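Agenda item 2: 6-O-phosphoryl inosine monophosphate complex prediction
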Amino acid sequence: MPALVLLGAQWGDEGKGKATDLLGGSVDYVVRYQGGNNAGHTVVVGDQKYALHLLPSGILTPECTPVIGNGVVVDPSVLLSELSGLNERGVDTSKLLISGNAHIITPYNVTVDKVTERFLGKRKIGTTGRGIGPTYADKINRVGIRVQDLYDESILTQKVEAALDVKNQILTKLYNRRAIAVEQVVEELLAYADKLAPYVADTVLVLNQALDDDKVVLFEGGQGTLLDIDHGTYPFVTSSNPTAGGACTGAGVGPTKISRVIGILKAYTTRVGAGPFPTELFDEDGEALRRIGHERGVTTGRDRRCGWFDAVIARYATRVNGLTDFFLTKLDVLTGWEQIPVCVAYEIDGRRVEELPYSQTDFHHAKPVYETLPGWSEDITKAKSFSDLPKNAQNYVKALEEMSGAPISAIGVGPGRDETIEINSFI
Ligand code: GDP
Ligand code: IMO
Ligand code: MG
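Presented output:
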């Protein structure tokens, strides 16, 4: 069975880009199914480093067809500049396919995202300011603009009018901003039409035919399980479904086609933006994780909040995604700690809780219960097999595997494509 989902098991930035790129050579299609350019996926190939926001990481593998599915929100200006940036570096992007049903992030969606956050003040989500939430809100409100609308000026104008009717009232009367002119937006969007035309396709048909032909399709999630609009730490989440089910709706592929769901899991935890984070560290250990792990956002340049590994979250990710495997990343970052605490449960109002509490109030009060595992000091970045790892690193991986509820099938020991230990093959 040839369809795999690869997704973030924590709060994003687990190393999905690297993992996707690694599998790129063995898959025929790499599909983004949700999110937009709020994502920042870093791929390191040899001495070249790429930061991808909207394009699937498969774009760097010539044999692979990259697909932007219907569930993604597309900012055309970002997409075109990402494409031309890659072209300048010699990457062929001509195979890209974009769903005509994907929604467009319009300039007013970006404005609304920024204005809303400012208005929320202390209560803000800490969004990436890329217009993601307002674009998905328009989609659900049925006033969104889709890629295919760029090819019918009359429909596009009517839809932009409908969307701005209400938004201009809010912008001018509530937020004290200037109204946005319909003609200006339509003109800007129409200017993208010809440039995007070669890529626009019926991606649902293409992907289902590919699966019928036994091609291998990899669905690459953006963000992560705890940022999921339904299953994450709402309201401190993104506005889409990064969890496994999102791959079905966001690409138009039935759940019976999915054979494997791989959770990308960092050997510690990070989070960007606001919201609860039980194992967050505010001491020199947190600072060291940030420094050694280069934990700075690829999209917004914000410092990532850092903390120890949280097995409660990993177990939850296994459950809500039906994970078949984990890809454990950044194990090398933990080299040098004598003892490594791992959160095995929470204490909530004096009670020990083993699973992610269903109530947000409880989660806000959750204090980590730690078990401490012995660390290692040897450089592990050259390790090629599990047995190359020092005993304590092996035991750390085994302990995480046992607590997290799915086999760890690969381990990242550095950012490069080849800095990976493969235990079980994914395909
Ligand atoms: P994504 O959003 O999940 O694709 O992850 P990001 O690219 O935002 O952040 C992950 C960072 O960790 C990137 O800078 C990667 O190059 C880097 N990285 C990925 N895997 C490893 C690993 O195993 N070890 C180290 N040291 N860095 C890694
Ligand atoms: P990748 O794919 C980490 C966070 C933002 C904010 C919240 C909502 O690189 O893992 P949004 O702009 O989506 O409305 O912001 O979600 N966020 C991410 N955090 N990695 C990401 O993507 C993220 N995309 C969004 O920081 O807290
Ligand atoms: Mg990222």
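Discussion summary: Residues 17 and 41 are 5 Å apart (CA to CA).
Owner for follow-up: CH.
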